[in-house]
Amino acid sequence: MTTAEAVRISQFSSAVCPLAMQRLDDGYNVLASAAGSGFFWRRTDGIRKGLYLITNWHNVTGINPETGRMMGQFIPNALMLRVRHISRRDGEMTYTQLWDISIPLYSKEVPIWFEHTAGAKVDCVAIPMLIDDIDSYAIKPLNECGLQADLMPDVGMDCFVIGYPKGLSGVGATPVWKRASIATEPNFDHEKQPIVLVDTATREGMSGSPVIFRHNGVHMPSGGLDRNTIIGTVENFLGIYSGRIGDDVFGVQLGRVWKARVIDEILDSGTMGKHPNEL
What we know:
single chain; mainly beta; six-stranded antiparallel β-barrel; 3 helices; 15 strands; Peptidase_S1_PA
């Protein structure tokens, strides 16, 4: 008889899931598919309270937001998420199994996602997680992962893009952490957009990944040593990764990160997505 052992994974890893953007026919057969990343976010106040999947606008539309052209050969009409379903609990132990969940992107040809008031100019969307028995899934919203809200980003700081490069994952569909550094001054908007650039060698499939920045050592929120001083590692949320700058022909290895504030801007406005055929 074997005894199950507890396995700890990062709470941030628990907030991220692999995506398959799919084109389904009327019989729900997969005609085409592409890989991406997304993460969970919980809204606790306002009229749009609930759990959301955050990812890129280009992931759900199949459209390049800069050129307005299709990025591949199809427009997705469904997302496949791989998440952990709680099979049973035994005291402090929770047993999970990997399940695939299909989410339709349209209801009667109307997009189900919320997007920014700027539309495709902000490459991020929030998708309501309207799934029956959602509490039976081991889903951890990123904004409930013990973020250090008073930790401010600074140029040169370490950060991590957490996702699925080329659809690759760790054991149990855990994400890959790609190390990066903040490459532009985060207090400025890059090219007048809520973007900060990061220096990292990322690959296809990481679009929609959350980006976490980290400080190791002494964190003094008040500017001096006091009871609020933290010694160790603190982390905060930088934003949503949406791909490399251009086609990176010069090998600059710079990626775009939409600043964290765009999530609240999307949910505050409640702007429903537009069908790609209407763009």
